[in-house]
Amino acid sequence: MQVVGVVGAGVMGVGVAQNLAQTGHHVLLIDVSEVILERAKQEIKNNLRFQGFFKKSEPADRPDEILNRIKFSSDYQVLKEAEFVIENTTEKWEIKQDVYGKIDAICPKNSVFAANTSAIPITRIASVTKRADKVLGMHFMNPVPMKPMVEAIRGYHTSEETIATAKKLLAQMGKECIVVNDAPGFVSNRVLMLTINEAIFVLQDRVASAEEVDRIFKTCFGHKMGPLETADLIGLDTILYSIEVLYESFNDSKYRPSPLLKKMVDAGLHGRKSGQGFYTYN
């Protein structure tokens, strides 16, 4: 596998594209906005430079060589060359439905589609394509280049051949995967989103400050980050979209989004990417 399409140049798309380029793949990074694409290019350039500062040994490729492996485009037609496509768009069904209709018509018949989604069922995504057996979920963790494990999701129609192809690509990226069955939120986000949402309720109810909530999880349970720090890293808008999908999917009140979470998203306090969430970032 040499040519991989990456749809969506947000936080996750940037991480996936960078990881692929660093492992020798030619990447087609697609987004509807030239402004977003230019920002993505600069972010990847900065990430590669910072990584160079911290690596003790000389990297195999120079940052400019890695960056040259990524083609930045707002034209979906370039995906006609893609052997594998990883989709990273916003966690809204209407957007994903439109994207999969487009790429299904453009990409080669044998191309595999992987949805890097937090909560939307893979079987539902596959249903809008004519290749349901070639669609799976590949839930990457942030920051993508530094996380060695991926949660892979088998949809109702996903073939074993597709799973094997995905495992092969992930191995080329220096990653392993745990394959789980399709259900809203899968394993990681079905548990994580509940934890984060409840931590926001705790903050809303003034039981403890954000710092105290996170410190309890880090010092009592040995977590590297607390739930509110994790929310800022993921993006509060993404957290809200994900918990809303779970609420809609299960019709269970335990997934009711915290009013504070909704308020912060409305106010544009999306976490690290906006400079302000539960914490302030420079």
What do these coordinates show?
- The chain is of the alpha/beta class and 282 residues long.
- It folds into 2 domains: 3-181, Rossmann fold (3-Layer(aba) Sandwich); 188-266, N-(1-d-carboxylethyl)-l-norvaline Dehydrogenase, domain 2 (Orthogonal Bundle).
- Helix content is 46%, strand content 14%.
- It has 11 helices and 8 strands.
- It has helices at residues 11-22, 34-54, 63-67, 93-106, 122-126, 160-172, 188-204, 210-221, 227-234, 236-250, 259-266; strands at 3-7, 26-30, 70-73, 84-87, 112-115, 135-139, 149-154, 176-181.
- The protein has an 8-stranded mixed sheet.
- Helix 1 packs across helix 2 and helix 7 crosses helix 10 (236-250).
- It is globular and about 55 Å long.
- The protein starts with a strand and ends in a 16-residue tail after the last helix.
- The model has no long low-confidence stretch (mean pLDDT 94).
- This is 3-hydroxybutyryl-CoA dehydrogenase.
- NAD(+) binds at residues 8-13, 31, 91, 96, 118, 142, 273.
- GO terms for molecular function: NAD+ binding; oxidoreductase activity, acting on the CH-OH group of donors, NAD or NADP as acceptor.
- Belongs to the 3-hydroxyacyl-CoA dehydrogenase family.
